[in-house]
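If you are new to this repository, start here. Below is one unmodified record pulled from the training split, so you can see the exact layout before writing a loader.
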Amino acid sequence: MTSQALVLDFGGVISRTLFETHALSEQALGLPPGTLRWRGPFDPASDPLWQDMQADRITERDYWMQRTREVGALLGEHWDRMETFVQRARGADVQAVIRPEAVAAIQAAQAAGCRLAVLSNELDLFYGADFRHRLPLMDCFEVVVDATYTQVLKPDPRAYALVTEALGLPPERCVFVDDQARNIAGAQRAGWQTVQFDVMQPRASFAAALGLLGLATPSLS
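And here is the target side for that same chain:
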């Protein structure tokens, strides 16, 4: 087995962002098309709350909790857990929100003998504890480090250390992919190779990560 690892964030990298699936969310929640207008990285100028998060004036969890409360209020309900939003919006078909580019990259890395890990700040917190058990793709990952349980959030250096310790690899043998600049900077400080995931160009982002592992970009079936 190779002594390299592909380490992925979940939300935004493996899973399509909620910004990309507004139409699916509106349909699942019974909201009129076009109700959800906040677009995050797809239109930062129209999303001041996203700009606050990017400027570190609020945390990512703060951002999503406000959006959760807003969507719950549209339904006349009080939602105080991100898990409620995600499960209501995505619970029927978990596979529908997984990026095909992610599946292809994960399978390519696995076929080449690379180690696979997930490093997430809120996998089970946002998606619910049963989400990953309903997603066969998660069986590909040898290590899942989730701050829902560790309470150590990226970019804390301890978060990255938990992964390298679990894998038994030095930092420089890990290629990390995350969509948030602060988490990429944390990984770089920890000595990891990194690719900042561009939600506008998922295929190119995964190609860059596989390239660091010495692998070719797979075709999408």
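Two things worth knowing about this chain: The chain has two domains: 5-16+98-212, 18-93. Strands lie at 5-8, 115-120, 143-146, 174-178, 193-196.
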